[in-house]
Amino acid sequence: MKEKFTLTIETWHKPDMGEQENVHGLDKSQLDKRIVVDIDITDGSCGNPKEYNPDHDPTVFKSTKTGRGPLGPNWKKELAANPDCPHMCAYKLVTVEFKWFGIQGRVENMIQKVEKRLFTNFHRQLFCWIDKWIDLSMDDIRRMEDETKQELDQVT
């Protein structure tokens, strides 16, 4: 199945509110096929209710270090109106190819749905963990990346 299945995720992080139309530099045919999915970290509806954790809910969480949160229904508009508050948009390009006649479309759609849930849950957690990472330096982050790589290399 190696040559029949590919999943690629490309990410750009930009200091904006998600208004860039073609951050990945796609050509016209790719743009015509592209589906833009807006992820709102306050929307927990795409997750399994059994997996709900109030510690990972941006509508409940309040950062003790930054004062950010809880996020309300207009959090994006409020953030855009506050130029003093740093923010970032993660632009993700998910490309799925599953070359198996008869089930290709269903499998590709299911993978896209799972990716949305994964990205939503991850970024909800990331926001709620801000007090754990806000004071990290780039050296701290690079060290943690190296440690994670070593752990992953041992597993594979």
Automatic annotation (TrEMBL):
InterPro entries the record matches: PI_transfer, PI_transfer_N, START-like_dom_sf
Keywords tagged on the record: Acetylation, Cytoplasm, Lipid transport, Lipid-binding, Nucleus, Transport
Domain spans labelled Phosphatidylinositol transfer protein N-terminal: 1-150
Family: Belongs to the PtdIns transfer protein family. PI transfer class I subfamily.
Physiological role: Catalyzes the transfer of phosphatidylinositol (PI) and phosphatidylcholine (PC) between membranes. Shows a preference for PI and PC containing shorter saturated or monosaturated acyl chains at the sn-1 and sn-2 positions. Preference order for PC is C16:1 > C16:0 > C18:1 > C18:0 > C20:4 and for PI is C16:1 > C16:0 > C18:1 > C18:0 > C20:4 > C20:3.
Entry GO CC: cytoplasm; nucleus
Cell location: Cytoplasm; Nucleus
Gene this chain is encoded by: PITPNB_2
Protein name: Phosphatidylinositol transfer protein alpha isoform
GO MF entries: phosphatidylcholine binding; phosphatidylcholine transporter activity; phosphatidylinositol binding; phosphatidylinositol transfer activity
Annotated region described as Disordered, given as residue ranges: 47-69
Reactions performed catalytically: a 1,2-diacyl-sn-glycero-3-phospho-(1D-myo-inositol)(in) = a 1,2-diacyl-sn-glycero-3-phospho-(1D-myo-inositol)(out); a 1,2-diacyl-sn-glycero-3-phosphocholine(in) = a 1,2-diacyl-sn-glycero-3-phosphocholine(out)
Superkingdom in the source lineage: Eukaryota
